[in-house]
């Protein structure tokens, strides 16, 4: 069985900005907790015991270490124990080098699972491991069918036995893609994976600093004739590396996950609320009663965090409201996410948008198809459409912005 997972987190997550301007992509709030926490919990419940972060960069290390530390609290929160460790502070030149450095430093000599910090997924670890072992694979890659744009993924061509014959990283044209099976960034590595870098082809990659799994290592391993296999994962998988994909994943999982997986109670059909303290129970009861009476309008699938305060005539549809958020009277939030401790004023409209942490949206503002990062103040009667606002900005009263990035 697989006991160890390595999570390389070293990029700047440019595509997910401005949410990641000052926050590690692995720690961006997602369904009211850090994104990577869902993946760790999913794997821990299947027997993965040790998690190693291959961390590079100030925000990545600060955010991840300050939250997870050694992982001892995980057992108390979820009833399953894990241990969290970290790659030594070395400069790595790609996600494969982060994994290699971790394997070498901790002298890991058993199969390991590699996952990515900006993915959410459903994976049968035991089934993937049995497949990997039956094929005597050097690397097994979890693959998913993708029918949309393939230019942002690695794409694999496979034989009848699922052996990967060719791997094209981010094909520029549809006709350059050998199939519609894309690399999920989930890899099962054999116990002798690190030995590859002492061989001729691996040494050459290492000396040249070409140490990205998709762009460098996997194609070279295939060229070397080592057995690389594709495992077709039947569960869901989302790369949430852009705001658009983030919201798509949220909408899917609001419908897919059980109340237990959401850490919530279903207080009314498809309305989930978190919190287990006595105060939380009282507040959840009041919210449910106000929805029944029509003082709050709730449509679709909704996740409410702990100690959320909702004003009169608030309308929420298919959205996530994080812990300690306050929403003023007559405001509307649709198809959106509002992260923790934000304050939404009265008569505010938010649609298809992500509102970061500690944001103050003042009365009468309209925000549509936009991303507002942490610690932003949006002035009264502002209008933001297709706008990205970087952290710590203050927008003046009545400002009108469209198709704009405020850095």
Short description:
The protein has 407 residues and is an alpha/beta fold.
Radius of gyration: 22 Å
The number of helical runs is 9
Name of the level-1 CATH class of the largest domain: Alpha Beta
CATH superfamily of the largest domain: Spore Coat Polysaccharide Biosynthesis Protein SpsA, Chain A
Helix content range of the residues, please? Answer: 10-25%
User: Residue-averaged pLDDT, rounded?
Assistant: 91
State the end-to-end CA separation.
Answer: 47 Å
User: Beta-strand level of the residues, as a percent range?
Assistant: 25-35%
Number of DSSP strand runs: 33
Low-confidence stretches: none
The gross shape turns out to be globular
According to CATH, the fold-level topology of the largest domain is Spore Coat Polysaccharide Biosynthesis Protein SpsA, Chain A
Largest β sheet strand count, sense and barrel closure: 14 strands, mixed
CATH architecture of the largest domain: Alpha-Beta Complex
Number of domains: 2
What structural class do you assign from the helix and strand content?
A: alpha/beta
Observed structural traits:
UDP N-Acetylglucosamine Acyltransferase, domain 1, alpha/beta, 407 residues, 9 helices, 2 domains, 14-stranded mixed sheet
Structure commentary:
There is one protein chain. The protein is of the alpha/beta class and 407 residues long. The chain folds into 2 domains: 4-253, Alpha-Beta Complex (Spore Coat Polysaccharide Biosynthesis Protein SpsA, Chain A); 268-402, UDP N-Acetylglucosamine Acyltransferase, domain 1. The chain is built from 9 helices and 33 strands. The longest helix has 16 residues, at 278-293. It is globular. The N and C termini lie far apart (47 Å). The model has no long low-confidence stretch (mean pLDDT 91). InterPro entries: LbH_EIF2B3/5, Mannose-1P_guanyltransferase, NTP_transferase_dom, Nucleotide-diphossugar_trans. Residues 298-383 form the EIF2B subunit epsilon/gamma LbH domain. It is found in: Cytoplasm, Cytosol. This is NDP-sugar synthase.
